[in-house]
Amino acid sequence: MKLKIDFMAQTLVKALAGVPVTLEITILTMLLSAPLAFWMALRRITKGNEKAKLVRFYISFIRGTPIVLQILFFYSLLPTLLNYFFNVLLGWDLNIWDIDPILYAVAVFTLNTAAVLSEVFRSALMSVGAGQLEAALASGLTGAQAYRRIIIPQALVVALPNICSTVVNVLKSTSLAYLMTVQDIMAVAKKEAAFGYNYIEAYLVVLVIYIALCTIVQLIFRALEGSLSAYRRRLA
Amino acid sequence: MRPFHPAFILEALVSIAPYIWVTLATMAGTVIFGGLIGALLAFAMIRQRKLGNAVANAYIYIVRCVPPIVMLFIVYYGLPELLMSVGININEIGKWFFVIVTFSILFSAPMAEVFRSAYLAVDPGQREAALSVGMTGAEAFFRIILPQAAVTALPNFANMLVNLMKEGSLSYTIGMIDVMGKGQLMIGLNHGSFSLETYIALAVIYWCLTIVLEKGFGKLEEILSRGKQRIRA
User: Fold this and answer.
1) Which pLDDT tens digit goes with each residue over B25-81?
2) What is the pLDDT of residues B156-207, one digit of tens each?
3) What does the domain layout of chain A look like in residue ranges?
4) For residue B64, which residues of chain A lie inside 8 Å, CB to CB?
5) Three-class SS of chain A
6) Residue A236 pLDDT grade (very low, low, confident, very high; cuts 50, 70, 90)
7) Are the CB atoms for A119 and A59 separated by under 8 Å?
C-alpha cells in the first residue's frame, strides 16, 4: 500500500479551510448549551421541583439515543416545524430553506450537549459542601450572589476536567455535521476523497487535524485548571 | 406541514425489531476483541515498563481524539488495501468485519482505562495476603483480585457499552444493516417519506435498549457486590 503524499499535502491545505467551521460550531454550541445546562442542573438539585421530572426525561432521551439519529431526526423535523410556525401560522414570508446549515448544526449539538453538560454541572455543584451556601446566605449574600461568588468558583474547578472531555466530544461529534451539508473538515475531505478515490489519504489527513485540535483543547484546559485552582494551592 | 402517520411508527418498530440482534451481535464481537486489546493495554500500563507504557498511552491518546466516523472510514477503505499489500484478499468479507474492527479499536482505549483503574482500586494488601497463604500469582489474580476489580469496573463498563451501542449506529454509513441501517433502508425504500416516523421508531428502540442495559447492569452490580462489607456508620 502506497500513500499519495502530495495528494495528502493538498488535501491538508484544503481541509484546513474547514477548521474555522468546526471550531465555530463547537464554540457556539458550548456557549449556548452552558446556560441551558446550568438551568437544568439547578432544577434537578432543588428538592420537590416538578420541572425536575421533565428535565430528567429529556436527559434520559438525549443520553439514550445516538447523536447521529438526533441529527437526522432534528434535521428533518426543524425546517418543517419552522416553516409551519413562521410561514403558515404567522403568515411571514421567511425563506426557511435558505437558513445556513451551520445554524441547524449548532441547534442540534446544543440540544445534545446541554443534557450532557447538565450532568457535569450537577455533580460539580453537589460536590460543593452544603455549608458553603448556608454560610454565604447567613452572611447576607443573596442567592444569586452566593452562587456567583461562592458556589460557582468552587464547582467550576471540580467540573473543569469533565467540561474538557465534553468539549473534545463535541469537537469529535461535529464531524457528523456533514450530514447536514455543513462544509466542515470532514465534508471537505470527503469531497476531495471522492474526486480521485483517495479515501484513505483524505481520512488520514482528517485524523491528523482532529488530533491536533484535541491536543490544543486539552492544553488550553490544562492551563485554565492551573489558574482556576490557584486558591487551592494557597490553602495547602 | 406534511402529514404525520403515528401508525407507521408501530409498523417501523415491527420491521426493525429483528435487527436488534444484529446490533447486539456486533456489540458482543466488539466487546470481546476490544476488551482483549483493552486488557493488554491496561497490562502494559500497570507493569510500568517504559516502552510498553509509552506505546499504550500514545495509542489511547490518539484513539480518544479520533471521531468514530473518521475511524470507520479509515478502516473501511484502508484495511482491504493494507491487507492486500501483504497478499490477503478481504474484498468478499461482510460489512460486519469492518464494523467490529473499527469499534474494537475505539472501544479498547476507554476499556483500558476502566480495567486499569479497577485493578488499582483493589487494595495491594489483598494480593499480598493471597500470596502469603501460598497462592501463585495467577491464582491470586483470578481468584482474589479479578472478582473484586470486576465489581468496581461494572458501572463504567455499562457506560462504555451504552456509548458503544450509540456509536455503533454509525455503521449504517458503510452500508451495514443493523437497527439504524434497517431504518435508513426503510426510509430509502419509501423514497424519503415517513422518515420522521422511522426516526421516532429508531429512537424508541435505542432508548429502550439503553434503559435495559443500564437497569440490567445496575442489578448485576447489586448481586456481585453482596460480598462487600459496607462501611458501618
Assistant:
1) 999 999 999 999 999 999 999 888 889 899 999 999 999 999 999 999 999 988 888
2) 899 899 999 999 999 998 888 888 888 888 888 887 778 888 899 999 999 9
3) 5-229
4) 168, 214
5) CCCCHHHHHHHHHHHHCCHHHHHHHHHHHHHHHHHHHHHHHHHHHCCCCHHHHHHHHHHHHHHHCCHHHHHHHHHHHHHHHHHHHHHHHCCCCCCHHHCCHHHHHHHHHHHHHHHHHHHHHHHHHHHCCHHHHHHHHHCCCCHHHHHHHHHHHHHHHHHHHHHHHHHHHHHHHHHHHHHHCCCCHHHHHHHHHHHHCCHHHHHHHHHHHHHHHHHHHHHHHHHHHHHHCHHHHHHC
6) very low
7) yes
Chain B nearest-CA distance from A211, in A, is 5
Q: What's the pTM value of the predicted model, to 2 decimals?
A: 0.87
Rounded Cα distance between A61 and A116, Å, is: 11
Global ipTM: 0.86
Distance in Å, alpha carbon of A88 to nearest chain B alpha carbon: 9
- In chain A, residues with a C-beta closer than 8 Å to the C-beta of B170 are 66, 68, 176
Distance separating the N- and C-terminal Cα atoms of chain A: 57
Please determine, for residue B1, whether its predicted confidence score (pLDDT) is greater than 60. Answer: no
CATH architecture of B6-227: Orthogonal Bundle (1.10)
In CATH, what class is A5-229?
A: mainly alpha
Is A18 within 8 Å of A177 (Cβ atoms)?
no
